[in-house]
Design brief:
Elements (H helix, E strand, L loop, with lengths): L10 H13 L7 H17 L14 H4 L12 H10 L10 E6 L2 E2 L6 H6 L2 E5 H5 L4 H6 L3 H4 L2 H9 L4 E5 L9 E7 L5 E10 L4 E10 L5 E11 L4 E9 L4 E11 L4 E8 L4 E10 L5 E10 L4 E10 L5 E10 L4 E10 L6 E11 L5 E10 L4 E10 L3 H8 L5 H18 L4 H17 L3 H4 L1
Parallel strand pairs: 1-5, 4-6, 5-7, 6-8, 7-9, 8-10, 9-11, 10-12, 11-13, 12-14, 13-15, 14-16, 15-17, 16-18, 17-19
Antiparallel strand pairs: 1-2, 3-4
Length: about 450
């Protein structure tokens, strides 16, 4: 008689299974949504966390890297949430904006700017209520094939308990940026959130998604933003990942862009000990324009992964991808970018470039740009460069009496600012450049780093 094979689980996999089984009956959603949750969790349970033999996760082996997943976070009272918000750093400085607040993965309507947004034509509700809707719940939980079976996305579908759902009426031009702020308190806990944004035809708005948390606290976050950009609309979406230094962060963006629309996306990565920010963007209408940009700043023993899949499914669209990455100390970085051009997507114009600077001998960065083209009338290209700070440029500053640490800081600031400025928003760009300046000011001088 042969024995049944025994599945070996890591501590993190065991904790995730326990989290789902413990929360399954209380997670929001109607019967159809609960069925989608069960299906997604079954995929995770069958495969476990992705590892190096899974091509899309080859350079971020979660089975080895993700050691701990704390229990799901409890919902705080509004008073306690307000106290936690007061202690959280404002990483956007003096930027005037509307704010939607989530604390430990739970939406806090009483701390958010719902009234002013409604006056401007923007409706907001908690995603937990949306999951229960017969029609909307299925829409938000059903994702395109390019994202649906991803391991982090499957876990989010299974365990997402709250988030914000935003509907922008057609033609609305939002006067201020909208910040979606995810705050992690000092409690060792996990948060699974799903945000949804529906942008009506011809509307325009700017969104800044921010993740912050305390240093020294083990935490885990798995967030997903579902975005639908209507025809001829414009959406500028910036993401700042500045989680605490012992946190793990898995963030996904799933976007569908309509005909004639413009979608600008920027990812700024500066926090967490282990992170992956991934984007799945589908061009679903003719003549759309997509700009995907990123700036990654890591040091110490951080591991940061930025991955994107851009699917040109309709003809006549244009895309530009630019990522600037800096790794110091013994940090490991990953950039993976894939542009897919469907057979129908003739007249596609797509370009991708990733540039990496390694500031120490122990730092490493993997860059993997790809093109997958099935059409024959296209203009597409990609490139990648890696190296150290240009010694000739550095010598220029040193020869004029500028100390080496200051000279390096100026060159690195200019290098990273290119990607931030590509978002095309001076106000938001200036706020995020402040994050770059803060990281550079805390970086060890060159003489000590080498």
């Amino acid at each position: 008689m042969s024995a049944e094979p025994r599945v070996l689980r890591t501590d993190a996999e065991t904790a995730l299974i326990a989290a789902y089984e413990g929360a399954r009956d209380t997670l929001p959603g109607n019967a159809e949504v609960q069925g989608l949750r069960a299906e997604a969790f079954a995929r995770f349970r069958a495969s476990g966390l992705p590892h190096r033999r899974v091509e899309e996760w080859k350079y971020t082996d979660l089975r080895a890297l993700l050691r701990e997943v704390p229990p799901l976070a409890a919902r705080l009272s509004e008073k306690d949430a307000a106290a936690a918000l007061a202690l959280a750093p404002d990483r956007l400085g003096g930027l005037e904006r509307y704010r939607l607040i989530l604390v430990d993965g739970h939406f806090m309507p009483g701390l958010s700017d719902l009234g002013p947004l409604l006056l401007e034509g923007v409706e907001v509700e908690g995603a937990g209520l949306l999951f229960a809707s017969q029609s909307a719940g299925k829409v938000v939980m059903t994702l395109p094939d390019i994202a649906r079976t991803d391991a982090a996305v499957s876990l989010n579908t299974a365990l997402a308990g709250d988030g914000v759902a935003i509907v922008v009426r057609p033609g609305v031009q939002l006067s201020r940026p909208l910040e979606i702020l995810h705050v992690s308190t000092g409690v060792e806990a996990s948060a699974f959130t799903r945000d949804a944004l529906i942008v009506g035809a011809g509307a325009a708005l700017r969104v800044v998604e921010v993740h912050v948390g305390r240093d020294g606290v083990i935490g885990h976050a798995n967030s997903l933003a579902y975005v639908d950009v209507g025809a001829d609309a414009r959406l500028d979406w910036s993401k700042l990942q500045a989680a605490g230094d012992r946190a793990s962060h898995l963030g996904s963006l799933v976007a569908t862009v309509g005909a004639g629309a413009r979608f600008n996306h920027l990812t700024v990565t500066a926090g967490a000990s282990l992170s992956r920010s991934q984007s799945f963007v589908t061009i679903a209408g003719e003549g759309a324009e997509i700009n995907l940009n990123g700036a990654t700043m890591i040091g110490g023993d951080q591991h940061a992964d930025v991955t994107l899949v851009l699917n040109h499914a309709k003809p006549g669209s244009r895309s530009r991808v630019l990522f600037k990455n800096v790794a110091d100390g013994s940090a490991d970085g990953v950039f993976q970018g894939k542009i897919i051009v469907a057979q129908e997507a003739q007249k596609t114009d797509g370009k991708m470039m990733a540039k990496q600077l390694l500031l120490s001998d122990d730092a490493a960065f993997v860059s993997k740009p790809e093109l997958e083209i099935y059409a024959d009338d296209v203009q597409c290209g990609h490139g990648s460069t890696s190296g150290r700070i240009d010694e000739a440029m550095l010598f220029y500053f040193l020869s004029r009496g500028i100390p080496r640490p200051d000279a390096e800081r100026l060159l690195l600031q200019a290098f990273l600012a290119d990607a931030v400025e590509a978002i095309g928003d001076e106000e938001v760009g200036a706020a995020l450049e402040g994050v770059i300046e803060d990281w550079l000011s805390r970086r060890a001088p060159a003489e000590k780093a080498q």
